Amino acid sequence: MKIINNDSAISEVMAILMLVLVAVSASAAYYTWIANLQDEVQTTGSEVAETRMNTFMSEIEIVCYPEYVYYNTDSNLDGEIAANATLDERFIQEIQVLVVNKALFNLTNVKVRAVSFGNGSPEWASLHFYHSTGRLQDREEGYFHPFTNKSLYFTSENKTNTSIRYITDEGYPYFASNYSNGNTTINTTNLTDLTPLHNPTYEMDDISKGEVGTGYVYLLINHTGLPVDTALKLYITNDQGVDAYRTIRFSIQ
Question: Per-residue pLDDT averaged across 210-217, rounded?
Fold first, then answer.
């Protein structure tokens, strides 16, 4: 039998090593492909979420004053806004919110919600009012808030140091009285239980496509040290899920 010695042939050891290298290379390539695919999926998901939010923000436009600035709010110069037996420095700010529906469909069950102030926020409450009368309403009971056994209105133009100020969105101040269109102020220093009054969500009418809806938010600044420089977030919600928000700056000196 003739034995042929082929020096160019691959030995068994080299063949095994080459198979191992091929397997390792294939595994590395597979891992790289999976990692790149995962990155692409995550990036696409983030882009979709961002695009969705940007689409919502473009379909709803929220129009309101970008900031509210207050001066000379500290009557007794003690470095804070508060109420005691002889002085009520607190105030209620009316915020008008216009919602422009730029979508191609109607928006139903539209609501505006006052979410929160930023860091170092004051003690606050979001009150429920009847805008047309300036009348404070008890959210829990559905009746007018019984304050000194009478309904509480903010219709008086007579300035007093013992009544909470009500500031309209245009900047006009009114003070608490006990009847509609009344001009006799009443003492509000004992109005301290804010729990039944807190109502951060306000209902608006349905908004047809291309139309503008109007809502109001009423914020009571109950107690805070001075100065204050913070922000409030207002969220718009509806049945269609086309949500948006607006940040408003509050500065109290």
Answer: 94
